[in-house]
Amino acid sequence: MYSIWAKGDHVYVVHPGAGRISGYDVVLQSWEMVCNADYEFPLNIDLKNIEVHVRGDLGYVTCLELVKTKGKSWGKQIATNVFEKTDGTWYICIHHASHIEE
Questions:
Q1: Counting C-beta atoms within 10 Å of the first and last residue's C-beta, which end of the chain has fewer, N or C?
Q2: The whole model's pTM is what?
Q3: In the beta sheet, which residues pair with residue 61?
Q4: How many beta carbons lie within 10 A of that of residue 69, not counting itself?
Q5: What CATH class is the domain 12-99?
Q6: Phi–psi pair at 16, nearest 5 degrees
Q7: DSSP character for 17?
Q8: Tens digit of each residue's pLDDT, the chain (102 residues)
């Protein structure tokens, strides 16, 4: 996670059921909490309906995430990821995932 996120206060994440979390350090701390939570790991995320759009040094990806833990369905979520190109490398600057009902 540390290598794929843009550095700065402009980055943010919205995890399903949570509010906006802003700033590189806090965003990475939120991912550490997600990864260290008491889930039945490993998480398996199957992506569907992927759309990629690029405009200059900005791009975004939308998709449906089907999340499973050790064979059990954990749910579906719609995700949007925004990327920015810095010095020739793409970094994520926004991740927003919202749970949707089955």
A1: C
A2: 0.85
A3: 52, 81
A4: 13
A5: alpha beta
A6: -50, 130
A7: T
A8: 889 999 999 999 998 888 899 999 999 998 887 777 666 666 788 999 999 999 999 999 999 999 887 767 678 999 999 999 999 999 999 999 999 986
